[in-house]
Amino acid sequence: MLNEKDRIRIRHMLDYSREAVELAKEATRADLDTNRLLELALVRLLELVGEAAGRVSPGVRTSYSEIPWSLIVGMRNRLIHGYDAVDHDVLWDTLTEDLPGLIDELEKIVPPEAQ
Fold it and tell me: Which residues are the active-site residues?
């Protein structure tokens, strides 16, 4: 059972992930190289997903070990601290390949009807 703080943090992860996926659907990989606002928006959304993941309690992380918590937080840290060297290929792969699966897993924890 989730406490309210963890439920909110997981909802934040879902909201930011969904928003990033929607933005990426309307773009191409090449757009990351030419559209600075798109790049900034997507980077920020992934930072927020990672920040929320880092605040989920250790017990919940252990209970839902199928979610790669440390990789999500690690991505956030890389984006924040390596701000001058964001790899657009990795960013795009995360948006298009990883986030849809993460959304599916998070919805198992906090189903859409419970949000």
Answer: 76, 81
